[in-house]
Amino acid sequence: MENESTKPSRFEIEQSPPAPKNRRVISGRRRVISGRLTRVFSEDYKKIEGRIFDPRGDHVKQWNKYFLVAALISIAIDPLFFYLPEVNDDEMCMGEDTSLKMTLTIIRSIVDVFYLIQIYVRFRTAYDAPSTRLLGRGELVLDPFKISQRYLKRDFTLDFLASLPIPQVLTWLPIFDNSEMLSTKTSVLYFIMFQFFIRLYLVFKLSSHIQQVTGVVAESTVAGAVYNIILFMLAAHVFGACYYLLSIERQGICWKEVCDLEEPGCGEKFFNCRYLDDPGRASWYQSSNISNICGRDTESYEYGMIFDAVNYGVASLDFFTKYSYCLWWGLRALSSRAEEVQASTFLAETHFCILISLTGLLLLAMVIGTMETYLESRTERLEEYRIQQMDTELWMNHRQLPHAMRERIRKHDLHKWIKHQKVDEEAILDELPLDIKRDIKQHICIELVRRVPLFDQMDERTVDAICERLTPVTCTPGTCLLREGDPTNEMLFIMHGNLDSYTTDGGRAGFWNECRIGPGDFCGEELLTWALDPRTTDTLPLSTRTVTSVAEVEAYALSSKDLKFVAKWFRKMHNKKLRHTFRVHSHQWRTWAACFIQSAWKRYRRRKLVGMLKVKQNYNYENGVGSEQRRNKRMGSEAHDCIRTPVPKPKDPDYFD
Asked: Crossing angle for the helix pair 221-261 and 58-77, nearest 10 degrees?
């Protein structure tokens, strides 16, 4: 008996006395009872194969958005049932739009399927165990029995009532089709509003749940503004349908009052278009004054707010025309908060106007607030840019900068605004975790860095380390990135645009070397030689060239500190295979090579000229010149025969295999 009392329940979740190992296994992340998993954290859910849904999973989030759209459609369909009654103004009777009823029944039945699917999803969606909840999240309970029990106690009743096909059933019942009482038909239609309000409550509840899980209902501010405008249009759609049904009801009341005065020859069945062929109805209608009392342009009966609907014969028009008119009326009433609505002393009209006024005030506040937020988000940066421009202009006037310099500053600010919308990319990346920052930098830079031939020869780890430390640089035409003779602070890798690179060899007279560099090239290579030198000092190398942008340039910069770090910890950069690539693409080496070729050519021409002169002057020196004189001349010619370039040979980086 003791063993039976201590035996754990099949669906037990909380702690219980120890059981055999093969019956219960408890770990820090999962709980298994009777060989069955009952709890799991959300991050471990993907390892489980089953039919239980994760409430924070992508599938449930996507389904909630689909179901929200279906729920909004169902809310929009329900008021359309109010347009089923139609009035025959010529015969003063009420009929029914059968084709509209069939169309609405089919559409509403299709939408009801989503509510049935929602019930199934709720029965199969896990929930957080309250006893393990930490910072709003806890272990997910996967036991189907516990999930069903919790759902049945909480939300099942409302979901079940919302899924019932109430409008379809009520409108197709004989009590609606064959009723002789006008009040019976309108009462049946008003009963549809009971389910409408249930579904409306579920829509707001689902929107709140989506906002709690994902942070927002809509992904962008524009979508949020459109969502609130849709709610405003939906409210106008509902009030317009109610206005139409109220006009039908008021006309029916007028007919009934006239009928009561003309008894016993009148009966309420005469107002149903099914009885148009009734002989008693035909004789009564010919003797009755109902067309003058309850017809158009009447002053005998006070219609109040529905006077326009009766006067224009809205109830006798086709569906699209009367729906458009009622929707316009609802929008006008909500926008003016019922100020333009002239209500009578009829109690239903008075309460209807009060409801319109309160709803319009609430919805206008929501829509205006959302639109204001959207406009502020769009204009905030523009206002910030305008204020910064004003401050810049005041500062330039105070410093009395020349016109050309002012234009350069304005052009730079405008270029930065157009390219980045004043977004500080580095500030955004600094707020992210290190692994996300690394992946983003690699995603953005890896293909661009591989375009640089020097980096294409390096291994993957070295390129990743360089990508992590690259910073974007943008400049306008005419910007000087490097100046000859200044310390080189960073190495630039060109991604887009063209630059002019030239040198005067320290200002030497008569020397000028210029070239054009573009995407895939780099500049500031003196810094690489400095970083790879194991005996280097903190003194930065001097730039041997001046680099100026010709057009808009986008590049990535690697600072001296970061380059030194990569060269120190990633020793594969010290590789002789990079020597040839570095020399081919280095403009400093290209300049030296060009000067060396020119000097070699000059030496060749000089030696050739000297040889020809020796042949011609051979006879002159056979007897007249002494041996000592010939020896000195030979030594002088050998010394003069060395190749001397105007540009010193660049220093090679410290490569080793």
From this structure: 30
Q: Classify 410 as helix, strand or coil.
A: helix
How do residues 41-57 score in pLDDT, each as one tens digit? Answer: 554 455 444 578 877 77
Percentage, residues of the chain above pLDDT 90: 6
Phi, psi values for residue 224, rounded to 5°: -65, -40
Task: Give the count of alpha carbons within 13 A of 596, CB side only.
Answer: 9
HEC per residue, 447-490 = HHHHHCHHHHCCCHHHHHHHHHHCEEEEECCCCEEECCCCECCE
Nearest Cα neighbor of 57 from 66, 67, 44, 70 is 44
Check: CB of residue 547 under 8 Å from CB of residue 499.
yes
Nearest one of 301, 355, 264, 386 to 92, comparing CA atoms: 301
pLDDT at 595: 75
Looking at 182-220, list the stretches that DSSP marks H as alpha helix, in order from N- to C-terminal side: 182-214
**Tens-digit pLDDT profile for residues 456-511:** 767 778 788 888 888 888 887 888 888 888 888 888 888 788 888 888 766 565 66
172-181, 232-241, 257-266: which has the minimum mean pLDDT? 172-181
Residues 6+ apart with CB under 8 A from 485: 506, 542, 543
The type of residue at 230 is I
Burial of residue 534, with CB atoms counted within 10 A of its CB: 0-12 exposed, 13-18 middle, 19 or more buried: exposed
CB atoms within 10 A of CB 606: 13
Q: What length is written for the chain?
A: 657
**With helix as H, strand as E and coil as C, how does 61-78 read?**
HHHHHHHHHHHHHHHHHH
Pair of tokens at residue 559: 């600072």
